[in-house]
């Protein structure tokens, strides 16, 4: 099951997977797009590589003058290269006349800094080669939701709005401390010896990159009452708990390698480790973040909730990877900063991480365009 869990997690987490803004008396963005559109006699497929990031741009014959840039989700580091095709979920937007651009990022794993830079570079390339669109939208999936939200916060002049689908809509630090480390540490306490073992626990650099998915599932299955309590505590569907834990472990180890040390600390209080112990009746090991690694996480994966452009959050109804509090988290960040009116959270749709009915993304984008 090790490979099957890995494959399942990659599919889930991948999800579903020179700008000139009419300054100095040049043509307006709308005019530029109109000229480019008038000159086009057929659909355009533009592919290539931008500073190590493969990209694909699709412009339909009946282009409506608007651009959608797709930000894909987490890809396990070391995964085979994928062909650059129209991203999953984006065909309905092409059918409606939107141009669609996507980048495969210049690095795999939790590469937020690289992905934000690659996304901005792709937008600029589109403008330079195909003309400035009337409006530009970002659609991010899973980890790509964090990429899209961070891109809008850091490069707000380039975007008109963000749709965050099944998104990590919280800072990296929050996601890894509460959604990854907390259930992993609790599982390690409840089922000692199932996850790879080392003196430093989950923070030990000697740990292997991947756990044994079969062993995780077997431990859960041996006591379904305990497994159900564990799943309830972390809002994980029982059927997907082993795959979720597998992915959390892989992502945490990869982020620790990328950051040069253990990247997050155990959380405490009602929503953190103390609460886990009360709910599960077990003493859970606590972890302290390496200061330099934590600084990297905060520098590359921060979100402020500033919402400089309108945001629409589209969560799944049931999500075994990015559970409800994390896929809706940006709304709370924005509200705390007095920007709550800029963020709209749609009702959850679909069961399974980034599994939506085909028209869901088009509906979410239309909601955003109407704001």
Structure commentary:
The structure is a single chain. The protein is α/β, with parallel strands linked by helices and 371 residues long. It folds into 2 domains: 2-35 and 51-169 and 301-369, Rossmann fold (3-Layer(aba) Sandwich); 172-298, no CATH class. Helix content is 43%, strand content 12%. The chain contains 14 helices and 8 strands. The chain has helices spanning 2-15, 29-39, 91-95, 112-130, 143-154, 172-190, 213-221, 224-233, 241-259, 273-280, 291-300, 324-327, 329-336, 360-369; strands at residues 44-50, 53-59, 66-71, 99-103, 135-141, 161-165, 311-314, 343-345. It has an 8-stranded mixed sheet, sandwiched between helices. Helix 1 (2-15) packs across helix 9 (241-259), helix 6 (172-190) crosses helix 9 and helix 6 runs parallel beside helix 10. It is globular. Mean pLDDT is 90; it is low at 1-39.
Structure keywords:
371 residues, alpha/beta, Rossmann fold, 2 domains, eight-stranded mixed β-sheet, 14 helices, 43% helix, disordered N terminus
Largest sheet, spatial ordering of strands: 1-2-4-3-5-6-7-8
- Biggest sheet character: 8 strands, mixed
Which class do the helix and strand fractions yield?
A: alpha/beta
What's the total helix number? 14
Number of domains: 2
Please give the CATH class of the largest domain. Alpha Beta
Under CATH, the topology of the largest domain can be stated as: Rossmann fold
Coarse shape: globular
Strand fraction equals: 5-15%
Q: Count of DSSP E strands?
A: 8
Instruction: Let me know the average pLDDT.
Output: 90
């Amino acid at each position: 099951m090790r490979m099957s869990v890995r494959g399942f997690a990659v599919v889930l987490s991948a999800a579903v997977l020179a700008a000139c803004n009419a300054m100095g008396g040049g043509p307006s963005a709308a005019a530029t797009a109109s000229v480019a559109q008038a000159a086009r006699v057929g659909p355009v497929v533009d592919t290539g590589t931008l500073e190590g990031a493969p990209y694909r741009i699709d412009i339909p014959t009946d282009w409506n003058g608007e651009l959608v840039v797709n930000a894909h989700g987490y890809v396990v580091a070391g995964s085979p290269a994928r062909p650059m095709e129209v991203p999953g979920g984006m065909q309905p937007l092409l059918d409606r006349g939107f141009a669609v651009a996507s980048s495969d990022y210049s690095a795999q794993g939790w590469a937020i800094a690289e992905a934000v830079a690659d996304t901005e570079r792709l937008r600029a390339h589109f403008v330079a080669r195909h003309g400035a669109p009337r409006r530009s939208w970002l659609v991010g999936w899973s980890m790509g939701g964090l990429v899209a939200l961070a891109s809008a916060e850091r490069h707000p002049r380039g975007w008109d709005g963000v749709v965050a689908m099944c998104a990590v809509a919280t800072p990296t630090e929050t996601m890894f401390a509460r959604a990854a480390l907390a259930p992993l540490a609790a599982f390690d306490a409840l089922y000692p010896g199932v996850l790879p073992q080392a003196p430093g626990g989950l923070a030990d650099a000697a740990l292997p990159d991947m756990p044994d998915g079969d062993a995780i599932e077997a431990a859960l299955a041996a006591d379904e009452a305990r497994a159900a309590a564990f799943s309830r505590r972390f809002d994980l569907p029982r059927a997907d708990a082993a795959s979720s834990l597998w992915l959390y472990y892989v992502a945490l180890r990869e982020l620790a390698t990328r950051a040069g040390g253990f990247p997050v600390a155990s959380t405490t209080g009602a929503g953190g480790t103390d609460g886990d112990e009360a709910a599960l009746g077990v003493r859970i090991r606590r972890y302290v973040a390496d200061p330099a690694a934590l600084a990297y996480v905060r520098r590359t994966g921060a979100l402020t909730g500033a919402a400089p452009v309108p945001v629409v959050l589209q969560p799944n109804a049931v999500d075994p990877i990015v559970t409800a509090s994390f896929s809706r988290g940006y709304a709370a960040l924005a509200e705390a900063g007095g920007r709550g009116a800029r963020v709209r959270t749609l009702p959850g749709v679909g069961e399974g991480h980034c599994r939506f009915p085909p028209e869901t993304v088009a509906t979410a984008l239309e909601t955003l365009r109407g704001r």
